[in-house]
Amino acid sequence: MTTALLRPTGNRELLGLLGRTPLARVTTDLPCPHPGFWAKLEGLGAGGMKARAAVSMLLGARERGELPPGAPVVESTSGTLGIGLAFAGQALGHPVVLVGDTELEPSMRRLLRTYGVRLELVDRPAAEGGWQAARLARLRRLRAELPGAYWPDQYNNPDNVAGYASLAAELAAALDHLDILVCSVGTGGHSAGVIGPLRRHWPHLRLIGVDATGSTIFGQPARTRLMRGLGSSIHPRNVAYDAFDEVHWVGPAESADACRRLATGNFVSGGWSTGAAALVAAWAARVHPGAVVATVFPDGPQRYLHSVYDDDFAAAHGLDLTRAATRPVEIPHPRAAEATGWTRCRTVADPLTPADDGSPDPTGRRPPRAPSATAAPRPDRRTTREETP
């Protein structure tokens, strides 16, 4: 189903609603007791977290002359960026055409169309690259049908990264100090966008990336992923691999369990990315006593009522939340073993760059390089018994 291409007149006053989201203290057990961490509640901002990136990408394209006034914007999305682009399109006066897939929740489809978006859905994943590749193939056809349409290419657009400078500024203004930042990774935009400015405030700040099991971003083999909005089946070039000190892969049972615990114990919660980031942030606070830990909750719980918070959904997908892992398994390198549940690795590398040691890559891709000095453990890090291999 498609809808007519609406042409918003533009309402720049909406830009005044961007950002300035609350920072909450989270202390509920996730699933173990921990000293607490700070969570930036991006789901409470107009257009959600990705409105920051969407506005930045459209403004950057307009400044360079790549996006004429009133020209359409086309993009592939699993939902969250779609809301951000709908916001940016209304604010800046651009019709928005989004390519989703039939896994997109009916409530999200209705919401996007309510915001005036034209939504195209692909009905089967590609043999290689899954739903993401199928959406991108449809997007290429749409660009040919819509002369002058602009494709932001969120996975590889540096304006995506630049859009999160405001998020970094808000964190720096709200916190006196920060030792550890935990970021979920999809396009790589918000982690890359905040870590540079924040390390200028706190040079020894550690960055922990959170990915989904089955995601290829950090060098794991591509598998079918239940969680949406976290991870990727491609390799986004916005990911700042050198900036990460470690990465955790989290499975859907662990993420859903954390989301539900957040909802009942701290009231604020969200979807797959939020649960995964919260789980790792709580772990970091527990194993680094005295450290100030913060994370970002990308969205709220509303679109996940029939997945994350639905017992029938969990049963249908074999998610036993009562047996969710309470600590990660550790592997020495992303290619050492496949992460099928919560897994931690302190070696972070770009999977498209050959490794120095020439060791084989069981995923079938070229082996990644050894981590750079910026990705290595920092000399002032706190090591605890649980963290020692």
Describe the structure concisely.
This protein is of the alpha/beta class.
Characterise this structure:
This is Pyridoxal-phosphate dependent enzyme. Pfam families: PALP. One of its GO terms (biological process) is alpha-amino acid metabolic process. Keywords: Pyridoxal phosphate. The protein has 389 residues and is of the alpha/beta class. It has a domain of 188 residues: Rossmann fold (3-Layer(aba) Sandwich). The chain has an 8-stranded mixed sheet with strand order 1-2-9-6-7-8-11-10, sandwiched between helices. It has a 3-stranded parallel sheet with strand order 3-4-5. Strand 3, helix 2 and strand 4 form a beta-alpha-beta unit. The longest helix is centred in the middle third of the chain and has 16 residues. The chain starts with 22 loop residues before the first strand and ends in a 44-residue tail after the last strand.
